[in-house]
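Researcher: Quick test of sequence recovery. Tokens follow.
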């Protein structure tokens, strides 16, 4: 009986439209789940720039401003000492090299008349001891400053670790915002597709309603005709 009724409906109203509403509802459910997932980021992306900046992980330092100022001053002093030693060493090495190149020890040794050559050499080389001693002091100071730099660098290890972690958090948030921005474009496309779909669905429903009304009207007239015929037969 149902098959016969369905056949009559198709003959009168035409073929039934494809029943795609459940698929569309499933797509809408998935889209809503994605929207709920990206909603916090979408709120941030549509908020003022100041609010967006305020939501980013902050590069907060572990030290107080006073400690930071003292530490920066200490680093500045160490770097100035390094520059000072570098310049001083360059001058001393150049001076020492010039003295060595201008000294003709062979000529002086040949011209020396005595037999105490070792004493002569020791006296002659004494002129270089002052510069050599200053260079040694410079090298010793370099080791001390290197130790101070190593200690200062170790003291900032925790701060560097914190800064690195915050930078990673910022990068992760940037990537998440970019992904949500891409989803926003997808959402706009899906919304437009949904509008087109439901417009077509509304048109199909309107046509179906019109056809149903026509069928009902035809059945009503058919019943009226049958009733008139029955009455005419009885009387």
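Model:
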């Amino acid at each position: 009986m149902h098959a016969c009724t369905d056949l009559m409906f198709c003959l009168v109203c035409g073929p039934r439209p494809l029943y795609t509403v459940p698929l569309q509802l499933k797509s809408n459910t998935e889209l809503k789940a994605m929207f709920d997932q990206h909603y916090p980021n979408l709120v941030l992306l549509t908020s003022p720039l100041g609010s967006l900046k305020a939501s980013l992980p902050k590069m907060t330092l572990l030290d107080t401003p006073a400690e930071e100022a003292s530490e920066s001053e200490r680093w500045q002093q160490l770097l100035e000492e390094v520059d000072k030693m570098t310049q001083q060493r360059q001058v001393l090495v150049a001076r020492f090299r010039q003295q060595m190149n201008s000294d003709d020890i062979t000529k002086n040794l040949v011209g020396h008349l005595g037999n105490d050559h070792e004493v002569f050499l020791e006296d002659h080389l004494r002129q270089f001891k002052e510069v050599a001693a200053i260079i040694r002091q410079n090298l010793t100071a370099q080791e001390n400053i290197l130790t101070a730099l190593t200690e200062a660098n170790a003291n900032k290890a925790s701060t560097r670790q914190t800064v690195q972690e915050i930078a990673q958090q910022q990068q992760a948030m940037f990537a998440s915002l970019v992904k949500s921005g891409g989803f926003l474009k997808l959402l706009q496309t899906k919304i437009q597709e949904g509008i087109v779909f439901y417009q077509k669905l509304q048109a199909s429903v309107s046509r179906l309603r019109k056809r149903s009304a026509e069928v009902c009207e035809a059945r009503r007239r058919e019943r009226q005709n049958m009733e008139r015929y029955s009455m005419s037969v009885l009387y």
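The two ends are 33 Å apart (CA to CA).
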